[in-house]
Amino acid sequence: MSTGELAGAGVRNNGPPATIGSVEEDHRCSHLNCNTSGASFHGHLDIQTLGGAGFASQRTANDDCHRHWELASFAGLEVAIDLSQSDNHMYTLILKDTVLPRNPVDGREQSTVSWEAEFSKADCRVEHSTRSHTRTASLFIPWDRFKPTYRGKPCGASQPLDLSNIKRIAIMIRSFFGSQEGDFCLGIISIAGCSSPGLEPPTPCETCTNDQHAGA
To answer: Does CATH place domain 3-215 in 2.60.120.430?
Structure first.
């Protein structure tokens, strides 16, 4: 199995490390704190302001710097998380191969198709880690798990995802109209391109049950 690291303490690609920015409003507060061992995506999902709807996300920034990821040689992405720093919520990993300039009239970002794959701690295979005080788990997400959406809704994409030219990577948590709310935290050790899963079937975390997974 060969891998190419996309994110550890930050996100790496074919140039200098990309910076991370937030996509949120005051009622969708999230943070992404990075250090040498990984990153923590955390915050408080307040669904009251939007009557049950809402989301919070963090993404790679500086999309206009001609930065991109070449992932066509890989079979999918492998996400490694720190179990002690991760809850049982459902999270979404998002890829974009098209990012448009901001609207010249109002300065808002113009919408494009996103490719999304959902996962939770219950999907991951528990691993033994050499890192002190860290219990890790990993999940392989093949490309066919990423489904096209437009402004948060499933859509039919006219073209497949261009894996040779990924412009943006994001991590998001949705409220699912009230199914998820309040404090959240996902400890990300790495996100890496992976040529083959090389993993046995997932061993559910002892703190995650099938009922928790289905209701996330």
So the answer is: yes
Residue 150 identity (one-letter amino acid): Y
CB-based burial, 54-79: b 16+ in 10 Å, e otherwise: bbbbbbbbebeeebbbebeebbbbbb
| Helix or strand run (H / E) with residue 5 | strand 3-7
Residue type, 52: G
- φ, ψ for residue 34, nearest 5 deg: -110, 145
What pLDDT digit, counting tens, does each position of 116-135 carry?
999 999 999 887 555 556 68
Longest CA–CA span in the chain (Å) reads 53
For residue 188, give the nearest of 38, 11, 74 by alpha carbon: 38
User: What does the domain layout of the chain look like in residue ranges?
Assistant: 3-215
Q: What is the pTM of this model?
A: 0.78
Tokens 């198709």 sit on residue:
113
Quick: pLDDT tens for 48-80. 766 666 788 898 876 555 678 899 999 999 999
H or E stretch including 211? helix 210-215
Q: Can you tell me the distance from the alpha carbon of 28 to that of 22, in angstroms, rounded to the nearest whole number?
A: 10
> What does the chain come to in residues?
216
List Cα–Cα distances, 207 to 12, 73, 85, in angstroms. Answer: 32, 35, 12
Cα dihedral 30, 172, 110, 166 in deg (nearest 10): 120
